[in-house]
Amino acid sequence: MFAFREFRGLWSAQALSYTGDQVAQVAIAVLVYGKTGSAFLTTLAYALTYIPPIVGGPLLSGLADLFPRHRVMITLDLIRGGLVAVMALPQMPFAGLCALLFGTVMLGPPFSAARSALLPDVLPPEKFLTGSAIGNVTFPISQIAGFVLGAGAVAALGPNGALALDALSFGLSAAIVARWVEPRPAPARDTEAQPSVLALTRAGAVLIFRDRTLRTLVFFGWLAGFAVVPEGLAAPYARTLGGGPLTVGLLMAAMPAGTLVGTFAIGHLARPSDRMRPMGWLAMLSCAPLIVSLLHPPFWLVLALWVLAGAGGAYQLAAAAAFVRALPASGRARAFGIAQSGLLAAQGLGILAGGALAQRVGAQAAVALAGLFGLILAGMLATAWGRQRDEMTMARSDAPPATATAAPPTQAAAAHTPAAHTPAAHTPAAHTATQAAEPQPEMPLPTLPGPDCGCGHNGSGAVLMQPKAAEDEFMQPPRDLRMPRTS
The whole model's pTM is what? Predict the structure, then answer.
């Protein structure tokens, strides 16, 4: 794969950008908490890495279809590098820092859209799946490495110096794309009238919330709003433990590391037909260990508990796959847009609420309460999901035998015959639930050449997948577990 020069350029820019982003996350948390001493203002700055893509995604991602994608990536990298360089100025006030951060993160979705749109152009069709898998598994390792390197950079250079390094990473990313990726003309424009963002949003919301199974699955995804609170409170939590920047970085890296382990276990050790069964239990596991924070455990035990919670967050892979399987093909893009925007909003609001709570009761108690509330909601969702699974099983057992033409193993994940997906269902919800419950076909894992990519984003375990790929890539190594590039 890395013999393809353009792919090497796209991947290098991606890995460099991801790592630089996490360095900046640590720097911003330490900088804001050091200046203000306020847990709420610290989480406010951190929440700004989640909220802007809700705006930037729908409004700006179309830039990659209006202008040459190579030029879009370079231009956005240079603009964001300049914004982060201004953020690194020592006298930058808090309000200015937040405004610059908001603008920098809002430009992330069009950059990611341009990169994703270029990938089919730089790889032959038979290499595209492997190239996508390599790109998807790059994020978790870059995230963990970036948090640890960010802690070291802040300790050695201070938070402003670490932000300056992130600004340099944008410039280096732009240089790599300019040198290794060939310019291409802008794609041909579609002259047909397109529905408005508001109309698409309304249609996606109706599709999800009128169906009980889809509602349950999307709420499973949004449960990440509770699990992400520890990451947003890492700086004030580290202060209660008597730690510095290294403690902050390790706390931020703990849950992504756990998610990495959990997604590997689900994706490689469990049978495809078994991967959705423990979803409710894993959702509860993603929150339950956080409650122990109320007992003021030592640093090593906090790390272990947060890693365990991150491993539970791997249930998001099963939830995402079930959600996509339960959607009608004609509405997948609209519904997934709602699910993704809601996920980012839940994470941003969860961080803000956690910061406000920590301002009153302290970081440890705020993390514990987030875990408690999340556990209660996860238990309710697990109970509802269990009942729906029972209904699915009954619907499938009552269905007449269906015949299906066997597809070759290499096409099993992409070729589902209509007969294989028409079990008897007495209500629309039962029909949708039956689709979600069907075991996934076996699909060979691609061989990932090149450097060790041991595994889509996320301290919270939240998964952001494209609808057409989510079901297939559930069978692949873990993908981006957080969000498109942030700063």
Answer: 0.72
